[in-house]
Amino acid sequence: MKIEVKQLTKVYKDKKALNNISFSLEEPKIYGLLGRNGAGKTTFMEILSGHILPTNGKILINGENPFDNQKLTESICLIKEGNNFKGDLKIKEILRIYSYFYPTWDQTLAEELVSLYNLKQNAKVKSLSKGMESALGIIVGLASKAPITIFDEPYIGLDAAARKLFYEILLEQYEQEKRMIIFSTHLIDEVSLLFEEVLIMQDGKLLMKEDTDQLRDRTYAITGTREAVEGFIHDKQIISKKGLAGMMTAYVYGDRKQARKNDFQVEGIPIQELMIHLTEEQRGA
Ligand SMILES: Nc1ncnc2c1ncn2[C@@H]1O[C@H](COP(=O)(O)OP(=O)(O)OP(=O)(O)O)[C@@H](O)[C@H]1O
């Protein structure tokens, strides 16, 4: 699948939720779509899924507009934070409905996951706890095997063990058959190892789109005495710096070999930290 985002803008009354963004996604990868509250992530995913129209610009999937386009929407599965399913339906009915909708649906996987998550096929959605309802969303997203599967903060109420199970199955399924998975979450530390590429949004703009390994290679954290670190970073591009009791840690762009030569303590920067500091840097600018 090829997703082309061209000068995409969405305005709600006086709020520009998306502000003229352009990029493309071509490979079956696990993409992390990150950003602070209100950055525009959900709006982007809703347009991509063909649920809402942009104000200006467009998204093309394999050259076509996803809005009102069943041929395309049966290749896209969006699992939202909540309210994915009608309350009066039973779990087994939901699985049946989705099996009709998605040509790639895997009923065996769906049933396996229903029992792994201890759900009852005859239970109605309205009788489920928040976590159970999230589990059902995850099951549908995984079993859809849709070539574009989108999870928008899909696990409200799910405990840590249930989330871990989700990551494991997601990865296992992805390894068996690669597809485009777009994953938006605020629990970045937990999932960042799954991401092959990250997209960071800020105030309706795309701040960064980069391969995770490359991002890890071109950023690092150094710690040392304040004087030594200040001396080292004065000609470097800095993401942030923080001093405490005569010591300092700085997040830096560049090749970490030079820092190693200087006997600093050198480490990678967790993606969550990067996201926080990049979006702060931008806000302050
Ligand atoms: N239906 C709507 N009507 C009016 N404003 C909206 C609507 N949907 C979103 N917005 C506004 O557009 C902006 C982007 O919202 P969006 O939900 O896309 O952000 P987000 O990155 O998904 O945020 P979060 O991480 O909090 O879910 C916000 O300022 C939000 O208030």
TrEMBL record:
Keyword field: ATP-binding, Nucleotide-binding
PROSITE patterns: ABC_TRANSPORTER_2
Gene Ontology molecular function, alphabetical: ATP binding; ATP hydrolysis activity
UniProt-listed Pfam families: ABC_tran
Organism listed in the record: Cerasibacillus terrae
Domain ABC transporter: 3-228
SUPFAM superfamilies from the UniProt entry: P-loop containing nucleoside triphosphate hydrolases
The protein, known as: ABC transporter ATP-binding protein
